[in-house]
Amino acid sequence: MIDEKVFEDLKAQHGPCVAVELPDGGGDIVMRRPTGPELDRYIDTVADSKNKSTTIRAFVKACTVYPDKAGLEAIFAAQAGAHLTCVAHLNAHAGIVQDAAAKK
Description:
- The chain has 5 helices and 3 strands, in the order H-E-E-H-H-E-H-H.
- It has a 3-stranded antiparallel sheet with strand order 1-2-3.
């Protein structure tokens, strides 16, 4: 898992972040919380897109603060589904959850 000091520094620079440790030594990805407009654009695009995977990958890339672009591309090349793992955590970090408590 990412070093706690590095993670704290990233949070200080970018605000709330989520760190995802990929399985099988696949690496760590740290993403900042998306802005409202970024989240709206992602939801609007992915809902109508025939290229959902490409849209999800672009959203994860836009929010990633660690590793750098080359490091992220290397992770994506080694683990083709890494962006799908990340987007689930990114969605939850933005407040999109399936099991939110609701009172009726």
